[in-house]
Each structure stands twice: as structure tokens, then as C-alpha cells.
């Protein structure tokens, strides 16, 4: 991830954190519209999870490890492989609503890139788990 995107993500997350309750409400409401069962299965505070991810952006390997752990937890809770894409759409919408004019094209592109990476890593974790299960690896 390029430095300018990391800085945009960190600065815009600071704005999200200032309105954490509203951010959470917007995200969960949009997620519930898209997939009520998924909204009901949230196991982590979405703002805290997002903050933890943003805090790690300087270490791509740690970001990947964190997302893989999140994917493992999600699948263990009965989540489906398509859920991360649904979450991504709800998150990007909530960010746009929350940040308003601060959600510039550059900020949108930075968040889109990060969330696309998260969905890709989670899909890879799901694929890894299915491969391991098929091979009898625990």
C-alpha cells in the first residue's frame, strides 16, 4: 500500500473514530438491509476492528495475518465466503455517509483499495481452509 493512501486512511479513520457510535449505527443498519442474518452475527465492534486494521497499515504482513484471523473467526462462526463482499459494500457506503465532503475521490479510492485487499485475503483464507479440509488437514 502506498504511503499517501495509508495517510488518507489514517486521517479519515480519525474522523470516523470521533463519531464511532454513528459510524457503527450506519454500518450495521446498511448491513442489516443487505443481509439481516449477517448483521446479527457480527462478533466484533466494526469500528474497533477497522481501527485495529488501520493501525497496522505500516506492516502489510501484520495486516494480512490479522485479516486471516478475522476470516478464520468468521468461518468458524458459520459465515459464508460471500459475506466479506457484502460487508465491504456496507462499509464503503457508511464511510461515504459519515465523512460527507471529506470522502473525496482520493479517500474513496484508498478505502476501496484497502477493503478490496481485505476481501481478497479473506477469500484466500476461505480457499485455504476448504483445501486443508479436503486434504484432511486440521
From TrEMBL:
A single GO molecular function term of this UniProt record: heme binding
Protein name: Unannotated protein
Globin domain span: 47-122
SUPFAM superfamilies: Globin-like
InterPro entries xref list: Globin, Globin-like_sf, Globin/Proto
Amino acid at each position: 500500500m502506498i504511503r499517501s493512501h495509508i495517510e488518507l486512511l489514517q486521517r479519515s479513520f480519525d474522523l470516523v473514530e470521533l463519531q464511532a457510535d454513528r459510524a457503527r449505527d450506519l454500518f450495521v443498519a446498511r448491513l442489516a438491509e443487505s443481509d439481516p442474518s449477517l448483521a446479527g452475527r457480527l462478533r466484533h465492534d466494526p469500528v474497533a476492528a477497522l481501527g485495529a486494521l488501520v493501525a497496522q497499515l505500516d506492516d502489510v504482513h501484520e495486516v494480512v495475518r490479522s485479516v486471516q484471523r478475522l476470516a478464520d473467526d468468521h468461518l468458524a462462526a458459520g459465515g459464508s465466503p460471500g459475506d466479506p463482499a457484502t460487508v465491504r459494500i456496507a462499509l464503503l457506503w457508511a464511510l461515504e455517509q459519515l465523512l460527507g465532503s471529506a470522502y473525496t475521490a482520493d479517500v474513496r479510492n484508498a478505502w476501496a483499495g484497502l477493503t478490496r485487499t481485505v476481501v481478497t485475503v479473506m477469500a484466500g483464507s476461505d480457499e485455504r481452509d476448504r483445501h486443508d479440509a479436503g486434504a484432511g488437514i486440521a
